[in-house]
Write a structure and sequence with these properties.
single chain; 591 residues; alpha+beta; 8-stranded mixed beta sheet; 20 strands
Length: 591
């Protein structure tokens, strides 16, 4: 079982490492905008995977592509210590975007049934991927602060909940090493800047059943000469809800949803068959198995009761268990987050979400020696949207803001990315941070002057009127002289030293699929600037007044305080001069 370092030590090192975030943030933001404009469906993440691989190579990782399909694995070895795996998902959804953002997706793709569909990052996987590569770059640029091995995994096909299993089956742990702990995060509808943890079960188990029932077709004027499969299907839809209300204990959570029902071609023709897809959710593995067994029994019984000419076809096409956070490791990471962000911005969820994920597959459930994992949420709802949402309690407000899988889902860009970068970096340092008390120099990657780490771990001043640092953390001292020699000198890295100098035009080329005879993971040929039409306005609902702009380069992620900056990002580091504006004094909410 991995052992987390002292939370204050992780926060101190995290604060020092994240002093570089302003240098890298413009590229992370531009990377996110490009991913949002160019989403790709599950198992088709060719362009996204190529961009991730190129970023990791430039940051000094050993990179392997095509793991489990389009998955990308980056390995960075930095001396003795634990192996920490950071995971993000890359795929998008068949949803037509309606956010009105200047960088909204207009992409289209082909789904697994061959249908042409709109494609949108409606679940925030663009945020996850941008924060993953940004964190990888930050840690690669600050190797004097940590020791161990960093395993960075960009996973395909989370939305079809088979991407994690595909990567494991392709030898993820046997080829690249078994991690001591897995860390992952997900953007959600909570206020931007909020980090939410829950030990134990945080997400539900799910299964999807495809069902086809058969009848005997005929003319609608003579139903007595037919066996109507539409009636069989209708009875199944009704009877399945009886499974929930009469076969599952009232003390358990269970959901069964008929999301697809198709039959017939014309009103006066009784068809030969009907097709259904039923999705289940539960928080108890025994209940999950019971739902599948009971629904299958109901389907067969209804077909027999109607005199169907043949047995129905029932297939479980997607299934994954609960996401069950290791309690001890979750407590350690949450403490490190509290030490860095402050208690007002890190909460413990009182109950699980009923959504589902396949990140738990990386934990090897059922294995005699499972891998512990910690999975948390990073809020993405803009501050003004949260404040304007109906309701008094957080749960009432959550129901009134656009959530994941909504065509209106639009995370607050800067606050969400900054908090995601910080949360993942501090989470990694909770295991990798060195215990020494020395204050090593951060090796800058963009030509700026060296930064002396504050040995107390205090974060940089946040400007007049901003949210103060965590209680009890002393103010940063005056800059110390550059130490010579540096006991934690950065090993030489090939140029370019980071993605600050990468060829982003080539990296983010517009070609979504490989050409004949070219590897899919090879950088696409040079093309027009993918940011040729940068966003021209803030991403807020029509009629809503934008909040004031941000006040300089925060290290922690306060509530959103301004409209997103335009893309492409500036090539020069921000000046750091605060804007003369007063932000909200209180955190966005408390549970």
């Amino acid at each position: 079982m991995p052992h987390a370092v002292d939370p204050s030590r992780a926060a101190q090192h995290g604060g020092a490492v994240l002093r570089l975030v302003d240098e890298i943030f413009p590229l992370v933001e531009g990377f996110y905008v490009d991913l949002h404009k160019n989403p790709e469906l599950s198992h088709r993440e060719f362009r996204t995977a190529s961009a991730v691989a190129e970023w990791l190579r430039n940051a000094g990782f050993e990179v392997t592509t095509g793991v489990g399909g389009t998955g990308v694995v980056g390995v960075l070895r930095n001396g003795d210590g634990p192996t920490v795996m950071l995971r993000a998902d890359m795929d998008a959804l068949p949803v037509e975007e309606k956010t009105g953002l200047p960088y909204a997706s207009t992409a289209r793709g082909t789904d697994e049934d061959g249908n042409d569909v709109p494609v949108m990052h409606a679940c925030g996987h663009d945020v996850h991927t941008a924060c993953l590569v940004g964190t990888a770059d930050l840690l690669a640029s600050s190797r004097g602060y940590w020791s161990g091995t960093l395993l960075v995994v960009a996973q395909p096909a989370e939305e079809t909940i088979d991407g994690a299993a595909a990567m494991l089956q392709d030898g993820l742990y046997t080829r690249f090493g078994r991690p001591d702990v897995v860390l992952a995060q997900h953007v959600g509808p909570q206020p931007a800047g909020m980090v939410s943890h829950r030990p134990g079960i945080i997400l539900a188990a799910t299964a999807t059943l495809r069902i086809r029932v058969f009848g005997t077709g005929g003319h609608a004027s003579q139903p007595h000469t037919t066996v109507d499969p539409v009636l069989i299907a209708a009875n199944i839809v009704s009877r399945v809800q009886g499974v929930i209300s009469r076969e599952v204990s009232p003390g358990e959570m269970a959901v069964a949803t008929v999301g697809v029902l198709r039959a017939g071609t014309k009103a006066n023709i009784i068809p030969d068959d009907a097709y259904l897809e039923i999705n289940t959710r539960s928080l108890n593995p025994a209940v999950a198995d019971r739902l599948i067994a009971s629904i299958s029994r109901v389907v067969r019984a209804e077909a027999e009761a109607s005199g169907a000419p043949r047995e129905p076809e029932i297939e479980v096409v997607q299934q994954v268990g609960v996401t069950d956070n290791d309690p001890e490791q979750t407590a350690g990471v949450a403490q490190a987050h509290r030490a860095y962000f402050g208690d007002d911005y890190v909460i413990e969820l009182p109950e699980p979400f009923t959504g589902s994920e396949d990140v738990g597959v990386f934990g090897l459930p059922g294995d005699p020696d499972p891998v512990p994992y910690v999975y948390w949420f990073v809020g993405g709802t803009p501050y003004d949207v949260w404040q304007a949402a109906p309701g008094e309690t957080p749960y009432e407000k959550l129901a009134g803001v656009p959530g994941n899988h909504s065509p209106f889902f639009a995370p607050e860009r800067e606050a969400t990315l900054r908090s995601g970068l910080a949360a993942l970096t501090v989470g990694a340092l909770a295991y990798l941070a060195k215990e020494e008390d020395a204050a090593p120099v951060i090796t800058p990657t963009g030509g700026q002057a060296p930064l002396e780490a504050d040995p107390t771990g205090a974060q940089a001043p946040m400007g007049p009127g901003r949210i103060p640092p965590t209680e009890g953390v002393p103010a940063p001292p005056e800059p110390a002289p550059y130490p010579e020699p540096d006991p934690y000198a950065e090993p030489a890295r090939p140029d370019p030293a980071s993605t600050q100098h990468a060829d982003m035009e080539s990296l983010l080329g517009d070609e979504p699929e490989p050409e004949e005879g070219r590897r899919w993971d090879a950088p696409p040929p040079p093309s027009a600037d993918p940011f040729a039409q940068p966003p021209q306005g803030p991403a807020f609902p029509e009629g809503a007044p934008p909040p004031p702009p941000p006040q300089g380069p925060p290290v922690a992620a306060p509530p959103p305080q301004g409209p997103p900056v335009s893309a492409p990002p500036p090539t020069d580091p921000p000046s750091g001069e605060p804007y003369p504006v007063d932000p909200p004094e209180d955190p966005p909410h408390r549970y």
